[in-house]
Amino acid sequence: MIEAVNLSKSFKNHEAVKGVHFFIEQGEIVGLLGPNGAGKSTAISMISSLVKPTEGEVTINNISVTKNPGSIRRFLGVVPQEIAVFQDLTARENLKFFGRAYRLKGKTLKKRITEVLEIVGLTDRADDLVKNYSGGMKRRINIAVALLHHPQILIMDEPTVGIDPQSRSYILETVRRLNREENMTIIYTSHYMEEVEYLCDRVYIMDHGEIIASGRQAELQAILTQENTIVVQFSRVANGILDRLQAHPLVSSVTHQGAAVTLIAKKDTEVLGDIFVIAQEAGVQLQSVEVKSPTLEDVFLHLTGRTLRN
User: Fold this and answer.
1) Where is the signal peptide (predicted)?
2) Which of 46, 129, 223, 235 is the most exposed, having the fewest neighbouring CB atoms within 10 Å of its CB?
């Protein structure tokens, strides 16, 4: 349904996207992951016809996005990271405004407004000003606007940033319902790996403007079949201990949050013993050690050297 071939975009001396190739089948939920500056937003902007590629091409339903942007916008909905509605209007007034921009009118528009308000769970608050909404409700009206014209494809860029867990859960379930009940194709970016694990059929991982890995979650996790994730809680992180752990020949990556250190290491019993020795020589205590199978987050860290939120 969506295909990119040699897609590139440069801004002056900076190449934001570097000759990427990808495809998305109808009815898939596909995750697009990458740390800040990886090129995700630029790629999304090219898919949605907002930015023209420097090289390459994107086609949707065999229609060139570059040559026929007006045609593809009819069946493409975009949920931006920013709240893109009028704060001093009600939800219903916003939907009327954007519905007319989509060339909907009369009974058709009225019916569709009722439908999308129900989809996002805002029927009871439809006539309240958006500026009085919670953060989660504002995110939901953002989604409602993108759904007005019955898009076949929905691009969602960080749709749950900064909202409460209940609203986040509601949005995730809405995404799954749209995919399941309407066979909607969805491109989903997020800084929350658990959202991607929960929603996505396949995942593309971008870094430095390139797609560095892609596949189903099990396929990506297979990259680390010979590794374990080791989570060590130290009493404190002494000077030099992280460098010593990173320098270990069986350790491929080290990250930490406070005194909790996560290592991706070869499946070898020597590693645990060496961690104890390094801790002892650094004068710190090990409060707990957990060994587990690698997750999608671990694969991301292994490939990019950064966590998703960096």
Assistant:
1) none
2) 235
